[in-house]
Amino acid sequence: MALISSLLLLDRRMPLYYVQVHVGVMVLPIAAALAGLIFADHHAAAGLWRSDILAWFMALFILTLGWMIARFCLRYLHGDRAYRKYFSLLTFTVSAAALTWMNNDIRLLVLFWGLPLLGLVQLTRLKREWRPARTAAVRMAMVFSLSWLALFAAGLWLWSATGHWQLSLALSSESIRHLEWWEKTGVNVLLILAAIIPAGQWPFQRWLLESAVTPTPISAVMHAGLINAGGLLLTRFFPLFSGDISQMLLLVLASISVLIGTGISFVQVDYKRQLVASTMAQMGLMLIQCALGAYVAAVIHLVLHGLFKATLFLQSGSVVPNPNKTIHRSRNLSKTWLFAGAAAGLAVGVMFWLTSPEENAKLLSALILGWSLAFVWGRIAVFENGRTIGLIVLAGLALASGAVHVSFMKLLHTSVPLFRTSIITEMAAVFILITGGLAGIWFSTHRSSDSFARLYMWLVHIGEPRSESVESHPHYLAAYLKKERI
Fold first, then answer.
1. Which residues of the chain have pLDDT under 50?
2. Considering the entire predicted model, what is its pTM?
């Protein structure tokens, strides 16, 4: 019904207020996904389709986030020439992204992997009179085609080796046992390639950085099962991927992406590009969790990050400073505050380590949790007004986050695997991230050194889009004005 309604939007005879009716119709798939999550048989397969907790949960997340963004677009995009097309393509994109994880056939998985990416390209192309948007759409189409071809080749290889198109049969222990090690590794390398491209990971991050030219809602909808689809793909293929040497390849690529994405977010002055670079780093953390076998943590990460980052994109207009509002910052921040933040972060990390026996890659999770708390504590302590209230709110949010994490763990444990990785692999990930963090601290305290200047300029260079992807002035608007004068 939602897809049919989206097609009706393209008929110019339909009144414009029908767009609001269509956004209301988009609630129906959300209700269906919620009903499936609660009442459906979570261990059933019907032909090409499957029903499990992960499928219904991701459908609920993707469709809900898509509806929220569509609701935001009612006013944000009002007056745009492609107003109707935005809602039609948005419905198509989120619907295809939701259906991707509800099938049990390799051929359908390959098809639905490409459809949401095609929808994203078309959403970017809607502003085709603007050269940067056209260039970004072409770049997206090129790299997304490579991702689709990689998954197509992996699926074809897996079918050729196992003789099964059904995903559950092709990934059964009996089928995988008959695979040669080089076949298993080859398929996994193709899966990694398919996963890291939509996630904007190094060395394919350029398309993501250039996507900042898209309208804000389009940047937000990327987090509805598109840019974070790689984590779900590896979760679905966990029997094949877990325990293979290709996990180390993914670990290295994702760790490099975390460090580069974090560095770019620090040197960029454009707010949307800061968010995009931060997304690159966060998707790297999600893929590190997959490389360590922490698939539950990866799914929770992509859901919470998707909601958080989509909200930041939709609220990006609020970062424009108010000239009438003065923010007082402490120039001489007491070291006691910083030490207290570090101690609190260490305590929370150790507590998480001791109280989470079933958590995969809990050393990495404890490190990220403790460092995040210490980092946010330091940022709050800078402000002189409301510092105490801010820290109380931070403590409350930390408790709420822990409760949500535990709830999602209980919900997903039946359909998302718990795979124990080797402590050596986990220590390698921790070592890479700690080394990168310490190097960042050293560079930030030696800003007058040549090394800092070289690193800074390299991050600026790698974080900047190509010259044809930007314009100093929106020339298409000038063309509109010229036509009006004529």
1. none
2. 0.87
